[in-house]
Amino acid sequence: MEMELVVKGGRDEETLEKYMKGVRHLCDSGLTRVPAKYILPATERPYAQGPPSNPSDLKIKLPVVDLADIHTPNRAHVLASLAEACQEHGFFQVVNHGIPAEVIEKMIDVSRRFFELPFEERSTYMSADIVAPVRYGTSFNQNRDGVFCWRDFLKLSCHPLSRTLPLWPTSPADLRERAVSYSKHIKGLFMELMEAVLETLEVDTGPVMEEFGEGIQMMVVNFYPACPEPDLTLGMPPHSDFGFLTLLLQDGVSGLQIEQKGEWVTADLAAGALVVNVGDHLEIFSNGRYKSLLHRVTVNTAQPRMSVACLLGLAADGVVRPSPQLVDDDNPRRYMDTDFATFLQYVSSRETKGKNFLESRMLRS
Ligand SMILES: O=C(O)CCC(=O)C(=O)O
Ligand SMILES: [Fe+2]
Known about the structure:
- Belongs to the iron/ascorbate-dependent oxidoreductase family.
- Pfam families: 2OG-FeII_Oxy (PF03171), DIOX_N (PF14226).
- This is Fe2OG dioxygenase domain-containing protein.
- This protein is of the alpha+beta class and 365 residues long.
- It has a single domain (13-360), classed as Jelly Rolls, CATH 2.60.120.
- It has 12 helices and 15 strands.
- It has an 8-stranded mixed β-sheet. A 5-stranded mixed β-sheet has the order 1-10-9-12-7, with no helix packed on it.
- The protein binds 2-oxoglutaric acid and fe (ii) ion.
């Protein structure tokens, strides 16, 4: 309630305008406390239930899917570990994924330099329009969030590249080249993973793979500045990702937490590791066999954190529905048809909380 008073009224609107410029900008003015706008209600704060008695209990090593053998006679083993990772865990790491370390390092490095640009330069790309193909923004949904989160981001739409690339930032001077190279490798890996995922579900791959070829690809570079009071706020609130898969790269500073059996566990990741998670659209397509899990991001006092999330799926105007091959008398259809436009309408019309978009698509029996 306090928060609403803060956003209304002349002086406070000016303050809101300042918050819209992002957390990095706010921090540059020298902060020793988290402003009220970023303070979550007590029950939504990290460790609202108190700190874990043994912090290492709450760190998990994500299951590893090793792609080294994906094109060998051992493919069946790879598929079995992939199926288990999607069905039992929802989040996993991929190794031997074929993306050169140099491409990954260059992507992280140029992302860092983007966030180091002077505010005037970064803000050229600032937009509150959630469908803008290139957008520098802050919080989770800055038009709707009552409480802001401790995150700035650069979102780059990668498809169709011929149309979106001319809109991408021109500085740092090597951003386009590096981000294009990274996004092309990510697309290749996504195609390889999806073909394998479809095989694990025992559905026809041809037509769906063709649709993925022309599907959406969103690259979101997240920047979470160091925070003076990390117990009061979050870098990202609990959410699930749209799309079929998210391929996530992060810089080695921990912060990603996944909800498992009602508890938040921190993913223990090596710098440069690629994390993959099942998105809402794959949960729908698989008729609930593979789960899109809630996750969130915590921040810390010691250092900023960066991640690059690539969300991929079907074409923006394509319809996502449970595969007819996974629906029968024993497995009734559990989700209604959905598309990207419906999702955008949903997120722009309300404050996104948890998995409520996915829940809005569920059929109750
Ligand atoms: O920064 C992270 O580790 C997670 C980012 C994320 O969940 C997202 O961009 O959807
Ligand atoms: Fe996410």
